[in-house]
UniProtKB/TrEMBL annotation:
The chain crosses the membrane at residues 38-65. It comes from the Eukaryota. PANTHER family: 3BETA-HYDROXYSTEROID DEHYDROGENASE DHS-16 (PTHR43313:SF1), SHORT-CHAIN DEHYDROGENASE/REDUCTASE FAMILY 9C (PTHR43313). Keywords: Membrane, Transmembrane, Transmembrane helix. This is Uncharacterized protein. GO terms for biological process: steroid metabolic process. The keyword Membrane applies. GO terms for molecular function: oxidoreductase activity. InterPro entries: NAD(P)-bd_dom_sf (IPR036291), SDR_fam (IPR002347).
Length: 396
């Protein structure tokens, strides 16, 4: 290998890694890296510009084959439902679709069912934010995903709207953003909080699928889409300290989706199940209400344990996390909306969307040896890789 080839190889490796990021699947990443390596050995003897171009064409060609199908969006048809519309990603998605609904190229959704925990407040928000014309497409539906009856009632409302509207093309897609971010030390946070966390973030998905999939199956047209919100890079992501409840709920949810997808395939149910994996997104409730939620958690711990032991041991760590949340730049919530749009409208949706650089890098960290992976998770928030600096009084 000559000396001037080293920068070339470096550049090609970077391109390869960047392209590999387009895939959500680690197997494919490895395949891409392997193919790259082989191509490098094979093609470099044709040195000079030709060799370089050949390599790039070969790599890009391989990468783009599965993406060719996606240059055109489908025309919008039927209705969609968005859950968790009280704030953050859900709210932004409803506003985005309502505002772009009459795009002549993309068609329009008959109705956007905005499922909200606090329907009144959300109604007021949408009335304030959207024009009358845009508002015509939005119907706020009260929904508590932890409550069976509430889910059944919401499904009834959606079904009744579709039945009333005789020309309706049915329920095409569901985008689910509902979720709560609990945060606290694993050995003190009360089990009730774990239960609540799993009720919303995990069983909420189960209830939505069981209540709404039958409505989607009634469509005779293009197969529908169900979109779930995971976290970070998915189940292989490192789990940072103090997020045991939240990460458990997200991993549980993702396992549910993987099994569901296999079941849909085997029963020729053409509904696509997609996971959006956002990294740190701003602005969201987690960041805005971080301190409030943490104080509440300490209070619950204190009531349960009869002492402030949890806060004494972990208080500074939690404060550091809050500081990290406010300093970390995060990914703007509109990036999540874009992923949701692609998942709903592209001809072939991906099985998962990693939104944000942190989310894209997480699977690489996830492939590292366990000790190293955990060190990086710690240092990312509490140590040398953290925008908040190194936490004092704890081992990092
Ligand atoms: C459908 O029509 C029935 C009867 O007119 C009405 O009671 C119901 O509210 C309608 N559903 C929706 C969601 O508008």
């Amino acid at each position: 290998m000559t000396e001037e080839m080293v920068p070339k190889q470096f550049a090609i490796s970077l391109v390869c890694l960047a392209l590999a990021g387009a895939f959500d699947n680690h197997f494919w990443r490895l395949v891409v890296l392997y193919v790259h390596h082989q191509l490098w050995i094979l093609l470099v003897p044709t040195s000079g510009v030709v060799g370089l171009i050949l390599q790039v064409v070969a790599m890009v060609g391989i990468m783009w084959i599965p993406m060719f199908a996606n240059f055109n969006y489908r025309k919008r048809q039927g209705c969609i439902m968005v859950t968790g519309c009280d704030s953050g990603m859900g709210q932004a998605t409803v506003v985005h679709f309502a505002q772009t609904n009459d795009d002549s190229k993309k068609g329009s959704f008959e109705k956007i069912f905005a499922a909200c925990y606090n329907a009144q407040a959300s109604k007021e928000y949408f009335e304030k934010t959207l024009t009358k014309d845009q508002l015509r497409h939005v119907l706020v539906v009260p929904l508590d995903v932890t409550d069976d009856k509430s889910c059944k009632d919401a499904a009834k409302t959606v079904q009744s709207w579709i039945t009333n509207e005789t020309s309706s093309k049915g329920l095409y897609g569901i985008v689910q953003y509902h979720g709560v971010p609990f945060f606290g030390p694993a050995c003190y946070m009360p089990v009730e909080m774990y239960e609540r966390q799993l009720q919303v973030n995990f069983l909420g998905f189960v209830r939505i699928v069981q209540n709404f999939m039958p409505i989607m199956k009634k469509r005779s047209m293009t197969p529908g889409r169900i979109i779930f919100t995971g976290t970070g890079g998915g189940p292989c992501s490192p789990c940072p300290p103090l997020l045991s409840a939240y990460m458990s709920s997200k991993f549980a949810a993702e396992s549910f989706v993987h099994s569901l997808r296999a079941e849909c395939y085997m029963t020729r149910n053409e509904i696509s199940c997609v996971v959006i994996n956002p990294g740190f997104v701003k602005p969201t409730m987690l960041v805005e209400k971080g301190i409030e939620l943490t104080d509440k958690m300490w209070k619950i711990c204190e009531d349960k344990q009869g002492s402030t032991v949890a806060k004494d041991e972990y208080g500074e760590l939690a404060n550091h996390f809050t500081k990290y949340s406010s300093l970390q730049p995060g990914t703007h919530v509109s990036e999540v909306t874009k992923a949701a749009e692609h998942a709903l409208l592209s001809n072939v949706p991906r099985t998962s969307y990693k939104v944000g650089i942190d989310s894209k890098l997480a699977p690489f960290v996830g492939m590292m040896p366990t000790g190293m992976r955990e060190k990086i998770a710690i240092h990312g928030i509490y140590g040398i890789l953290s925008p908040a600096g190194t936490v004092k009084g704890y081992r990092v």
